[in-house]
Amino acid sequence: MIQLDWNNQVFTLHTRASTYQMKVGDYGVLLHTYYGPRLRGGDLSYLLQYADRGFSPNPAEAGHNRVFSLDTLPQEYAASGAGDYRLPAIQAELADGSQIVDLRFAGAEARRGKYALPGLPAFFAGEAEADTLSVRLEDAASGLRVELLYGVLEEYDLITRAVRVVNGGSAPLRLGQAASLCLDFLPAKLDLITFDGRHAMERCPARAPLRPGVQGAGSVRGMSSHQHNPFVALCEPGADEDRGLCYGALLLYSGSFQAEAERDQFDNSRLVMGIHPRSFCWTLEPGEEFTAPEAALVCSPDGLGAMSRRYHRAIRDHLLRDPWKGERKPVLLNSWEAAYFNFNAGTLAELARSAAELGVELFVMDDGWFGSRDNDRQGLGDWWVNEEKLPGGLERLTAQVQALGMKFGIWVEPEMVSEDSALYRAHSDWALAAPNRAPARGRSQLVLDISRREVREHILSALRPVLSCPGLSYVKWDMNRGLTDVWSAALSPQRQGEVCHRYVLGLYELLERVRQEFPHLLIEGCAGGGGRFDAGMLYYTPQIWCSDNTDAIDRLRIQYGTSFCYPVCAMGAHVSAVPNEQTGRSVSLETRGVVAMSGTFGYEMDVGRCGPEEREEIRRQIRLFQKYYDLIQTGDYYRLTSPFEEGPFTGWQQVSADRRRALVSLVTGPARANAPFAAVRPKGLDPDAMYRVNGGEAVYPGDALMRAGYPLPPQMGDYRAFQLYLEAE
Ligand code: DGJ
Prior knowledge:
By secondary structure, this protein is an alpha+beta fold. The mean pLDDT is 98.
């Protein structure tokens, strides 16, 4: 709900559990008054305090009123150069060479429904589900105009934000930063949680109190990156899974980003999030506009777990455009760790046959099927079937797979080119590279300049015959290196600062056109595993390969970190062979199954080499996953313990919306002799209901299970897995 109080010039957004407010203050400065647990409303600007603070300047209109300073008052969208020395949300170089932007209120309106952002990912919602507030600001001297957009998904406790910048002046200007989100807090102790890591170990939470100065996370790699994720949280120091005030900030963007928090001299805090300014400079001619990507906020008065569940619901219902929404998605087998580049029609057919016998429903041929791609130094860009490996092409293979009762899918990496490829030989100038510089290679490959229309058109025309293969159901869209040598032949020297963002826009256009032309295809995103696991990609690819690390024990950490924002149904997770390819660790097939099951679920191993017991176990896992599919994929997700902390087990749980069914999954740690007894405390149950555990005789009260726990049998061996299925009587 949006309330516009024109008497007091106060604009308030309410969701079920939160309230957000801004006010047009003196001199037309748009001040931020509140974001927190839901309030009745009213004018909350009584919270703002004014004082004459040395070295904090006052706007010209304030005359000698020295208590009004942009540097000390909470701003709704902070500009730079006019007296606010804290982190800016917007920076621009104007025609006169100055970098002064001073924004004042110019109007506001509210409407039913949620705004959309052409060419950019955004949460979607109909008129019954969302409202939009649009607030206009203006820098009178330059004519630069800013439109702040707010989408309120009340039932989901989600407030989205986006920003349009218009050059309303008569001369060009250069935009150096246009953040999607600026959020000021009055003095309060806050912890910042970022999700950091590296290739094959993504999204490990790091939490630290905000200290004076600037801290944050970001990427300048041209992709959201393995190293940091465009999702951060701020919370009270005491906040945990179940208690305390928490804020989530999610950027729907897949390129270089920055999320920075600053604690200022008076202990106010500011969070700014958006496209990374380091690789960004956008020229706006008079009349032109720039749209910053969307950010989405959740305020959770009741802990980090509830914050995550709010994001999960909103992403599932209002971001994912899954062609199989409402249908059960197939359990897949992916050929990568089963065969790498070493396959031909015969070995693939054999793998497919073994997979089908076990109940696998989708067979995915990963890298190596096209051009002269026998290793990762060649072939990218040549999107035609290697008929030497696969006589009869995709059509024959698809038909064979379908005859086994499975769907068929393939891998592509359309944004890249190998120097050893027909595409590169014909169009070496299509790779990102600056004049007179040999570009850096990553995984021995170069990046195509998809900011250029003709390159995008070529990619689409090369993919089209492949994606048109009758019976093709699934595509894994990979990207295996970051951007370097960012220079585009299509842009003037003055506009080279636009390439990184134009690359992302080009990517979104490609994905959208593939979606439009092939609406039945399920597209799984991937970037060397989880290098582009972000909400921007999820708008086009409703699931993303979580990590190249398939080790179940490392996956406990990766999936735990990922779950702070992203739902289980978006997390690509597979069972792979042991010893694990990335860690050399061996854990039981049962444990690997339990971990992968809290994801999109599939296998990535040569199942033909499994013995009879393993085959039976795989059949059992697939049946179990199918049985609990809805609960696992759409149930409310609870983190029970952290895999980063010492303890008898790592546990997590899905609960049905009516709280009558729950699945608790646990993986123990390394074995300890003569260990203490352990119990698990499920969450989110109905305290008044009686639950049967794993179909046993006894029933247990929900309150006792949650508060006193359920004892676990003592275990021998490392990393044992359990699942407890709880069903209310
Ligand atoms: C990186 C991906 O993350 C892997 O799953 C696999 O598809 C390889 N690329 C193929 O080259």
